[in-house]
Design brief:
Distance between the termini of chain A: 48 Å
CATH topology of the largest domain in chain A: Nucleotidyltransferase, domain 5
CATH class of the largest domain in chain A: Alpha Beta
Oligomer: homodimer
Low-confidence stretches of chain A: 98-111
Largest interface: A-B, 49 and 49 residues
Mean pLDDT of chain A: 89
CATH architecture of the largest domain in chain A: 2-Layer Sandwich
Number of strands of chain A: 30
CATH superfamily of the largest domain in chain A: Domain of unknown function (DUF4445)
Strand content of chain A: 15-25%
Strand order of the largest sheet of chain A: 8-29-28-19-20-21-30
Number of domains of chain A: 4
Shape of chain A: globular
Structural class of chain A: alpha/beta
Number of helices of chain A: 18
Helix content of chain A: 25-40%
Chain lengths: 652, 652
């Protein structure tokens, strides 16, 4: 368990509890809505975030921006000062954003959605034990002799039965080819890899010697825009590493429809399959390189993806997914040999990829995986589950019933279709605050690296802040009358400079422009309308929801108040929100660890009812109404209504 | 049913019953031991086999050797005159071999082993019905609609259950890839190929439209020297075509030991696998070309081979087969995908190859197949089963018990290791008689084509005849004192000219030399010794055998008296012998037609006990004793003893 401390800010005696050991003072402050100037994203280069240490122990780096006297006096940079006890700091006026009033205003929004620790995320689902569907069994066989010349295969089967009670185990002819030498290489000490199928146990691999302590799986969330992977240790249930990459299919189209269209061109389906295979191979490379795990010891793969992504991975023709009556090719696709996908995933020949079952053309295995991973299939509470990606998937229900839909949001939330967008990796601007007086921004980047782009939560933050300070109007157009150089026209289009070239890792200004804002508005409108349509289809209202789970690659960084400010969600109680991060990956992880969870996933898919939004007039109406910041119907957004009215009264 | 007639030869009023319609007079005569001169193998070119038609109807070709007067007078060539009613013919003295006494002598040996018709061969095993393990099912599915948008795969599974009562059918991901368009191509009329596995039904292919009337299999006997294949029609149980080819592995060694040694060289195993795959592909090509069957409609393959051949086909390391304690890699090898063998067998991706289970390193699936195909596993009679090939396999037993062994005969019986040896196909000399006075030969070739070589039965005939006329001694050396140009020395070695270049399709003399005879002696000695060893191991004698089944590629042409004359078998009652032709192919055929027979094959493999001949001193003793023509112990060969004594008395 990471130790947690209380961090106290002066002036104002603002106490921030539960700051984990090693967290930077700047990040803790921003997450508690206490704003300290910082232009460089926490990289230590701008020197603006000076604080003075009052009490407690910190781990702090020296900086050229602080001289020896200042250092002795307790002056530090908030961005590179990490707490290692309860700590009190003073924020000098020069470091404060705007003035003390800002701090006051921001403090009103202190409550936020529940951000779960990795340990908490992995404990969302209970009642399962580590019991993977693929297992390694180490066996010492009795060598043959003149009086016992049973053939090799029968000898192996006999040991499986005698030592593990497994009878009628079927075998894969692939490993039988070298079985004679494998059995003898380490004097009849071998490790078998067996899989528990619906049709009984099957031995899929045989290695010489004992390898039971090396048993790994790769689980994947195959998004239309971004692919995430985790390397799991199946012997102990640990998550060893995580990696992500843009889906290389992007070059054939941004959304599933254009991908399906491309798949119908000659060779198109093969190109798309190879693109995702290449993407996954990159992720596998990164996972095994960062952990130094032997890739031959990967025994299992699980992939969660929407129906189109699953089809294209396996190589299934997705043509009819987009044609009425929207019939998907398959609910349950049998496990496929990884090396047979396209030119082959770079794992052992015995490894099979398990894909999550689909519900409908646009409600796929990723959402089934999310429902499993977040534990909604176990809870009695009526839950709204939203997975925000290129397709926004929405589920309402509990252990008794589940209703689901999918709305095409586009890639804006993953940094796609945005001038300086990027996915949520090192150097992405993830948090933005804008001083209402000076219109100066403060940013935080992932890993405190110099900013090289803006990820989904950063774009939401930026647009929300620009709206709240009156820099943009409710239809997403810049107010060009303001006294700031940051709003400017470039090539005939207005934009806001979020990071100056001087502090940017790109060597150029990082900006948000009106086209970016339009893309974000379309994305949030689709999801808001999807939720509304689903609620209305079961005659529920926001108030009936007992909990709201938000998943998505950026879930970890998203601030719910900012998402509400742009109208992604209405202004319901922020405490009802829980961020589950990448819910699909969470489900894929469970399914790889537990064959009981594999069965649960199949049950979830069977109990889930799809609501089709194509040709759904109610959805179209709700969508058009949401194409405004935050919405045309401000009754969902009373607080923002007040903020915007105040701006109007103040002349912005 | 082919009609059968009686053919009467004059002078002597020798009646030959049961001559099938269309059989040539020459062949019918030779099979009845009535000898008519013929040097050209029945090709019609030598003109020596003149006969005169006395009564009855024949179908006869004109020949330049017969003038118009002769033709009007009823003169014909026996080789191109075919019976189409009961027929009587006169054999002029010029056409008779030697003199009338010969005819008398030969008639004494009229009885011969039972040669079964194809229909009889296919009726050896009863109690099975046409019920292949792989089946095609034609289905009309209900198209999806707005009210019924069940996914494609679930719709297919539902139809399998509703229309055929098959539930929990597993599916192969290969065909799912194109399932959406396949289902729709002919308005939801499809044909599924399903296989009944030990783990339930599995759907392995899906075709648009109705294809139940096209369902074929290829069954193979993979011999060390020769590979035989048949194309079967699984819809009606018919055998459509047969083809054979030398095993291309021959270039890496003639017997299984040299093949195993080669397999241990770098890349050797892959070379050997590709060689047999190439061989089988040639056979498949020939089968589909001769029948115009669509090779995509082949759904099933069965291969019977000895343990080494089976390993090399599947790609299994055979290294330990030849090392004590002689442990084979596997008894039951799971069906392997045909396209995955080497560079791939040229059939559909869904086709799997079933290999017969092995008993021991040198008692393989071919012998199991033979026991199944010949019906020995069903009979109460104590039976000796001999499969004569490069490995001579010997089984004794009945439905209660089976004991088996294998002896390395070498390729002589298949024409291998013999100067002009060839396998039993068109143009091979299959029958040889030699005039004891003139030492002139009469030959018959397969399909009456000009001779291009000598197959196994031809070699046995030739050596037996040479021995009986005193042209060779009991140790296989030529008597060079005889008054015939046919025995001559070429390059320091003695040989007998069987076919002069003038009548040979090769354009050169076809000969038998002493090295050929030595190879044949070694081959027959190994088999005789194997039988003796097996009999002694169960304390039985020849007299205890109620029936003797002889299998082998040449079985159809082999004359048992000639085989006894060289000492391949002792002089037991010729009537106890039945020729089953290619027994392995017969078993492979049954297994492809009937899943009950597939189970029987597994039971046969499990009940068969192996007797190991390697390092078996009894076998070595019996082998050395048999290295003589016909044997060192002439008590097994009283008739030959008399013949040879007569020759000695006569000065030869």
């Amino acid at each position: 368990m990471t130790q947690r401390y209380t961090l106290t800010f002066q002036p104002g005696d603002v106490k921030v509890p539960d700051v984990p050991r090693g967290e930077s003072v700047l990040r803790a402050a921003m997450q508690a809505n206490i704003h300290i100037n910082a232009s460089c994203g926490g990289a230590g280069s701008c020197g603006k975030c000076r604080i003075k240490l009052l009490s407690g122990e910190v781990d702090s780096d020296r900086s050229a921006k602080i001289d020896d006297d200042e250092w002795s006096d307790g002056t530090r940079l908030a961005c590179n000062t990490r707490v290692s006890s309860d700590v009190a700091v003073f924020v000098p006026e020069a470091s404060r954003m705007g003035n003390a009033a800002v701090l006051e205003r921001e403090l009103r929004g202190e409550r936020k959605g529940r951000l779960l620790t990795p340990a908490e995320l992995e404990s969302l689902v209970t009642g399962w034990t580590l019991d993977p569907v693929v297992k390694k069994l180490c066996m010492q066989l009795t060598p043959p002799s003149d009086g016992d010349n049973l053939n090799d295969l029968a000898r192996f089967r006999k040991a499986l039965k005698d030592q593990f009670g497994l009878s009628s185990v079927s075998v894969d002819s692939i490993w039988i080819r070298n079985m004679p030498s494998v059995l003898r290489e380490q004097d009849w000490l071998v490790t078998a890899t067996v899989v528990d199928t619906a049709y009984g146990y099957k031995a899929i691999d045989l290695e010489p010697g004992s390898h039971c302590e090396q048993d790994y799986s790769v689980v994947l969330d195959i998004g239309t825009t971004t692919v995430w992977g985790q390397l799991l240790d199946l012997t102990c249930g640990a998550t060893l590493a995580q990696a992500s990459a843009y889906n290389k299919q992007i070059s054939f189209g941004e959304d599933v429809i254009t991908r399906i269209v491309h798949s119908q061109r000659p060779g198109g389906r093969e190109q798309l399959q190879q693109a995702i295979v290449d993407t996954v191979n990159e992720i596998i490379d990164e996972l095994v390189e960062s952990t130094r795990v032997d890739r031959e010891q990967i025994t299992h793969m699980v992939a969660a993806g929407n129906t189109t992504m699953t089809c294209l991975l396996v190589g299934i023709d997705p043509k009819y997914l987009r044609m009425t009556p929207y019939v998907p090719p398959a609910d349950f696709i049998p496990p496929v040999r990884a090396v047979n996908l396209g030119e082959g995933l770079k794992v052992g020949r015995h490894v099979h990829v398990y894909t999550f079952p689909s519900v409908a053309s646009y409600v796929g295995g990723d959402i089934v995986s999310g429902i499993v991973g977040s534990g909604i299939f176990e809870t009695e509470k009526i839950t709204l589950y939203i997975d925000i990606g290129t397709n926004g998937e929405v589920v309402i229900g509990n252990r008794e019933w589940l209703i689901a839909t999918s709305c095409s949001a586009g890639p804006a939330f993953e940094g796609g279709g945005v001038r300086h967008g990027m996915r949520a990796t090192d150097g992405a601007v993830e948090t933005v605050r804008i001083d209402p007086q000076t219109l100066e921004p403060t940013i935080l980047t992932i890993s405190n690296r110099p900013a090289i782009g803006i990820c989904g939560s950063g774009i939401i933050d930026a647009v929300a802040e620009l709206l709240k300070v009156g820099a943009i109007s409710q239809n997403g157009r810049f107010n060009t009358d303001l006294d700031t150089w940051r709003i400017r026209e470039t090539d005939g289009a207005n934009e806001y400079v979020l990071v100056e070239a001087e502090y940017s890792g790109l060597g150029e200004d990082i900006v948000i422009n009106e086209a970016d804002i339009d893309n974000l508005v379309r994305a949030k409108a689709a999801i808001f309308a999807g939720i509304m349509t689903l609620l209305e289809s079961v005659a529920l209202d926001w108030a009936d929801l007992e909990q709201i789970y938000v998943a998505g690659g950026f879930g970890k960084y998203l601030r719910i108040e900012e998402a509400q400010a742009i109208g992604l969600f209405p202004e319901v109680d922020v405490d009802s929100f829980t961020f589950v991060g990448n819910g699909s990956l969470l489900g894929a992880r469970l399914v790889s660890f537990s064959k009981d969870m594999l069965k649960s996933a199949e049950q979830v898919a069977l109990m889930m009812t799809n609501v089709e939004l194509s040709d759904n007039q109610l959805f179209m109406d709700r969508y058009m109404a949401a194409m405004f910041l935050p919405h045309t119907d401000m009754s969902y957004f009373p607080a923002m209504d007040q903020v915007l009215s105040g701006l109007a009264a103040g002349g912005r």
